[in-house]
Amino acid sequence: MFKSSVRKSAAATALVALALATGACANNTDAASTDAHESHAEHESHAHNEAHMHTHHTWVKSAAAGEMTAVFGELHNEGETPLELTGVTSDSAGSVQVHEVVNGMMQETATNLVIGPDETVAFEPGGYHFMLMDLKRDILAGDSVALTLTFSDGSTFELTAEARDYAGAEEGYAEHEAEHDHDHDHDH
């Protein structure tokens, strides 16, 4: 009888140890999964909120206070209805405009940008971008800049872009080029 109790006790102890080990593995897996997700989120600059938007590869070109700079990345509408962008703000800038490059010349978009259901719009050098005007502070490589996008349905979307040094995205403004061409004509 004593041997039978010892065997039952040893079996119960083994089962408890197995259950604890399995639980510990599950918890470690969850922790590793959470750490991997957080690490992925940091590197990919993802953001979600009430507008059912998702952003990927978001960054801002470093620049000095008083100047202007641009934010780039991808916006994806995860919702089932189109979203019309009606405004963008940032505490880092006096104003923010949506610009596009047409025939090599940068200009503010003529109409509000509409992002259809399951559509991705790229904001990239030479294309659409968020132009931060009259910077309130220096934006140095590694700094973060927050933007709030507002849509016609009243929803908003918060995104954060990490600053990096970038020598490109030096497109001219259409009105400045026209003035330059006009002045050049007088020189002949």
Summarize the model shown.
With 188 residues, the protein is α+β, with helices and mostly antiparallel strands.
Structural category: alpha+beta
Q: How many helices in DSSP terms? A: 2
Main sheet record: 11 strands, mixed
Unreliable stretches (pLDDT < 50, length at least 5) are 1-49, 173-188
What is the CA-CA span between the terminal residues? 116 Å
Number of strands: 11
Strand content: 35-45%
Q: What's the helical proportion of residues? A: 25-40%
What is the gyration radius calculated from CA atoms? 26 Å
Structure description:
With 188 residues, the protein is an alpha+beta fold. Helix content is 30%, strand content 38%. The protein has helices at 2-44, 174-186, and strands spanning 53-61, 69-77, 83-89, 93-102, 105-108, 114-115, 120-123, 129-135, 144-151, 156-164, 172-173. The radius of gyration is 26 Å and the shape is globular.
